Amino acid sequence: LTMSFAMQKLCNFRQRRLDGYRFIFKNYQMVLALAFAIEEINKNSDVLDNMTLGFDIYNMDFRAWSAFENPFIWLSGQYNIPNYSCLRESKSVAVLTRTSGTTSAQIGQLLELYKFPQVTFGPFDPILSDHSQFPSLYQMAPKDTSLAIATVSLMLHFSWNWVGLLISMDEKGLWILPQLRDEMSKNEVCVAFEEMIPGSVFTEMSKIIGIYNQINTSSANVFIIFGDTETIADLMYSVPLLIKGKVCIMNSQWDLTRKRDFVLGSFHVPLIFSHHHSDISGFQDFLRTVNPSKYPGDYFLARLWLLHFNCSDSEIDCLTWENCPQNASLEWLPGQVFDMAMSEESYNIYNAVYAVAQALHEMLFHHTEEPPLRNRKGMVSSPAQLHPFLKHIEFNNPAGEQVIMDEKRKPEAEYDIVNIWNIPKGLDLKVKVGMFSPHGQQLFLSEDMIEWTIGTTATLHSVCSESCGPGFRKSPQEGKAACCFDCISCPENEIANGTERNQCVKCPDHQYANTERNQCLIRAESFLAFGDALGMILACMALCFSMITAVVLGVFVKYKDTPTVKANNRTLSYILLISLISCFLCSFLFIGRPNPVTCILQQTAFGIVFTVAISTVLAKTVTVVLAFKATSPGRTMRWLLVSGAPNFIIPICTLIQMTLCGLWLGINPPFIDIDTHLEHGQIIILCNKGSLTAFYCVLGYLASLALASFTVAFLARNLPDTFNEAKFLTFSMLVFCSVWLTFLPAYHSAKGKVMVAVEVFSILASSAGLLVCIFFPKCYSILLRPDRNSLHSFKNKANVKK
């Protein structure tokens, strides 16, 4: 039995002159892989017992006008007319082809007429998977279902997001293009340019020139080429333009031997996706034994030896081997001429031969009891008999890998990532630098082994816009791809703590953004603390004034029976001094970290104790006026003074203020508030007054009491000096009103803890004004001028006034 073997441009056997013609020696490995597999099967009696496999080799041109030449010769004979003479008797059971999808489809239609099984060992073509059109065609290569994912994974690994696409203008290109677009879109990889490679580049030179110009002028340094060998080869040879500093990613259909005459270094191919396969044991040992003496009828092998081992040829068709090295081997040839490592297509040929052999084995086993097989000396009556067995074949090859002919059940391909080293010049050494597994979509890569361009190992950069660093966000450029953007600094109190951020993140209220806008820092709490210099000064002032007021109170209690104390209504003086102590002490409610209790007590305690103090001053002023008026004829003033009516001013005024404070607490009481925007890096903790209306009502009520006290005292300032303290009361209320009139603008212009300090200072200043203006003159008379603090002195003053 034989199995025909069609290769694409193995060599031109009709070419008799070697000068000016270059053989594609690397393709010869596929012939040897076929021979190796058949010899291995023939030696194994467990596969085909009492049957020997053979093969015929025919060259197959990829050009449409000559694609059918050798198939017709094989089917009908060298000089017979196709479809006129009967099909010559053939022992062939299957045809192995490597040609492109288009040519395979054309040949497949011819072979389908005779129901010949066609097994393609070239790249997988989804178009050929349509068994309604190609029922007799089988593909050995694994499916490229993960090729787009693997390619984009490589882009992501190197952070390339600006990539060009060069896709062949055929069915396979139209098949892979939407997959690439979809996968790139999902992973935010943008298409810098997209060009379709025409099928006939020689007739569309303007299109090819445009493609090269696009590559050279584009800012993308990485582009993906997907196409079959012929299309890419024509593209490479058509226009010798220099393309420098670019990275090319290609599928496994690239043939390095096709670029020998191209401008070196102008179109470097650094990374290729190739189907992963195991090593076949014994294949390289078999290659070492191959020579023209072993296969004397191999014309191509003879030419290979002649060109590379200096063998003499006496005639053009007669070769002599006297001058050939006795131990010459294919292993001596450089890698760019012949590669000892089994190629992907050679591996597919190896599996294809075993698949056909396994199908024959099952068919023979199925028909062992049928006489026709015996009668025909082991020959297969028709190749069509092989189809039912071939389409369902499934086995493990000698390397241990599973081979499945059913395309629906084929496993997803694993990819080796191959780099081409060109040092020294012309080496073209294939180096495996990584691998992609579709299971889990895992990419493994050794970056230090990659040669990007000739003599360069530094990874190239391919982005439309440079990455936005921490503290910046991306702002899309109008009318451009998503990968093109401007970098804008994050707004205040927002950060971007990584690169490529689309949005800035606002810091929480208790944190703030640093000046670089890449980190949120904890805000320092800010309030009028006892530990601060300002807080400490105010606290010391409040404590000192409280102690001074207590001392004054002590003096008045000690000298309560003296004329000075009695003449100034000692009960009201005691109340006023106690209220002033409370005013000084209520300042401590404003110092320290605010809490709900202190926030409520701050304003209410301040309002009530100051109401007591001001109403006491008012009562003292009214008492002075009544005391003077009581000396005049009439009963009303005397009755008011004797009945103690002025003493009711204090509780009535205080009750009104307490009512206002109660309404305040009931409607909208003060509460703890924080301000994160007032000072950078700080969180201001303060008491929010709640209802501002209530606050200003309390403050306004105090102002009306103070104004009333000032008015009464001012009108009584010219009363006789003996019993008159109206001048001191007038001056004290003048100081009090001046302080609080100054407080309002200062309070509203201050911020944070300074605002609180202004309020505390106003409390201390106004309270101190009352203490100093009213009580210091009396203490001076009591302690330093005791001669004035006697009844005799008062009588003398009274007589003098008379």
Automatic annotation (TrEMBL):
G-protein coupled receptors family 3 profile domain mapped to chain residues: 534-798
GO cellular component: plasma membrane
Coiled coil: none
Residues spanning the signal sequence: none
TM annotation in the entry: 533-559, 571-592, 604-628, 640-667, 693-716, 728-748, 754-776
GO molecular function: G protein-coupled receptor activity
InterPro entries for this protein: ANF_lig-bd_rcpt (IPR001828), GPCR_3 (IPR000337), GPCR_3_9-Cys_dom (IPR011500), GPCR_3_9-Cys_sf (IPR038550), GPCR_3_C (IPR017978), GPCR_3_Ca_sens_rcpt-rel (IPR000068), GPCR_3_vmron_rcpt_2 (IPR004073), Peripla_BP_I (IPR028082)
Places the protein is found: Cell membrane
Membrane topology term: Multi-pass membrane protein
Stored CDD domains: 7tmC_V2R_pheromone (cd15283), PBP1_pheromone_receptor (cd06365)
Keywords: Cell membrane, G-protein coupled receptor, Glycoprotein, Membrane, Receptor, Signal, Transducer, Transmembrane, Transmembrane helix
Short name of any one Pfam family annotated for the protein: ANF_receptor
PANTHER family membership: CALCIUM-SENSING RECEPTOR-RELATED (PTHR24061), VOMERONASAL 2, RECEPTOR 118-RELATED (PTHR24061:SF545)
Family: Belongs to the G-protein coupled receptor 3 family.
Protein name according to UniProt: Vomeronasal type-2 receptor 116-like
Protein encoded by which gene: LOC105998737
